[in-house]
Write a structure and sequence with these properties.
- This protein is mainly α and 59 residues long.
- The chain has one domain.
- The protein is built from two helices and no strands.
- The radius of gyration is 15 Å and the shape is elongated.
- Keywords: Membrane, Transmembrane, Transmembrane helix.
């Protein structure tokens, strides 16, 4: 399965928003940054659980 279809765009958006916010070009609310960060963490946990469950099924 290709899990990077969601992870790479979210990470790119997060980094871009952080850079634009730190340079003062735009103001990004903290809630938006936290939502994207939590989504990335949740997605990584989901991927790791899914992979570990697949490995248990294969053994």
């Amino acid at each position: 399965m290709n899990y990077n279809k969601i992870r790479i765009p979210l990470l790119t958006i997060l980094v871009l928003l952080l850079i634009l916010d730190l340079t003062g070009i735009i103001h990004v609310p903290l809630a938006v940054i936290l939502i994207i960060a939590v989504a990335l963490i949740w997605w990584n946990i989901y991927i790791r659980r899914n992979i570990s469950n697949q490995n248990k099924k294969n053994n």
